[in-house]
Specification:
The radius of gyration is 23 Å and the shape is elongated. It is of the alpha/beta class and 222 residues long. The chain has a three-stranded antiparallel beta sheet with strand order 1-5-3, with helices on one face. Strands 6-7-8 form a three-stranded parallel beta sheet. A two-stranded antiparallel ribbon has the order 2-4. The chain is built from eight helices and eight strands. The mean pLDDT is 96. The chain folds into two domains: 110 residues, Aldehyde Oxidoreductase, domain 3, CATH 3.90.1170; 58 residues, Aldolase class I (TIM Barrel, Alpha-Beta Barrel), CATH 3.20.20.
C-alpha cells in the first residue's frame, strides 16, 4: 500500500489533536506566555523499522505551520538504537503541544513495521508471505496497513468489499439452511461481483476437502 494521501493523513492527525488539545495545553500556556525558540529531536531507543515520519510532519504543521522539520529519515528506513530520526525547530510551546501526538504515531506505526519485519525475516527463503488482516484500530486502518508494507508484509483485504471471505459465522448461519462449504463457495461465486477471489476459513481437514470441492481460491487455517 502506498503512503496514504495528504487528506487522509490530515484527517487522522486533526482528530488526534482534537483529543489532546480540545482545552489547549494549560501547563505550557501557564509556564511560557511568550514564544521561545527551540529545537527537538526524536531518537530511537531500539533497533526498528521507521514508520510515521510523514504523519509526524503533519502533526507539527497542523499545530504550528512555522515549525520546520530540519532533518528526518525516510519512512521504511532501518534504524539503530540511538539514531536520530527527526529534528524540528520552532516555538517551544508548539513543539510541546505537538510532541506526544507525533510520538504516538511514530511509536505505534514503527512498532507495526518492526514486528512485521521480524515475521518477514523469519520466513525468508521460504515460499511464505506475511499478510495483514482487518483487525485494525478503528480510524487507523489505512496507516496501519501502510506500516505493514514498510515492514515487508503485504495487505490482505482493506475492507469487506475487497474479496469474499467465508468465515465461521457465515458457515454457522448457512448450516441452519443445510448449506455446506462447497455450496457456499458456489453461491458466493454466482452472486458476488465478477473477479473477486473466494477465501474460506477452515478448522478441519474435512472442511479443507469441502473448500476444495467448492473450488475456493484461498483456504485459511483458522
Amino acid at each position: 500500500m502506498p503512503l496514504p494521501s495528504a487528506d487522509q493523513i490530515r484527517t487522522v492527525v486533526r482528530r488526534a489533536l482534537d483529543e489532546d488539545l480540545a482545552l489547549g495545553d494549560v501547563t505550557t500556556a501557564a509556564l511560557f506566555p511568550k514564544p521561545i525558540p527551540a529545537h527537538g529531536t526524536v531518537t530511537a531507543h531500539q533497533t526498528l523499522v521507521l514508520a510515521g515520519i510523514a504523519v509526524a510532519r503533519e502533526v507539527f504543521t497542523v499545530v504550528d505551520p512555522t515549525v520546520r522539520v530540519i532533518r528526518a529519515l525516510a519512512d521504511g528506513t532501518p534504524v539503530t538504537k540511538g539514531q536520530t530520526v527527526l529534528t524540528v525547530h520552532g516555538d517551544a510551546r508548539s513543539l510541546l503541544m505537538a510532541e506526544r501526538v507525533a510520538l504516538n504515531f511514530l511509536q505505534h506505526l514503527s512498532g507495526i513495521a518492526t514486528l512485521t519485519g521480524r515475521f518477514c525475516h523469519a520466513v525468508r527463503g521460504s515460499h511464505a508471505t506475511i499478510l495483514d488482516t482487518r483487525k485494525t484500530t478503528p480510524g487507523l486502518r489505512t496507516l496501519q496497513k501502510w506500516a505493514v508494507t514498510l515492514g515487508g508484509g503485504q495487505n490482505h483485504r482493506h475492507s469487506l468489499g475487497d474479496g469474499i471471505l467465508i468465515k465461521d459465522n457465515h458457515l454457522l448461519l448457512l448450516q441452519g439452511r443445510h448449506i455446506g462449504i462447497a455450496q457456499a463457495c458456489v453461491l458466493a461465486r454466482k452472486h458476488a461481483p465478477h473477479g473477486l477471489r473466494i477465501s474460506v476459513e477452515v478448522q478441519s481437514l474435512d472442511q479443507v476437502r469441502e473448500a476444495l470441492q467448492g473450488a475456493a481460491d484461498v483456504i485459511l487455517l483458522d
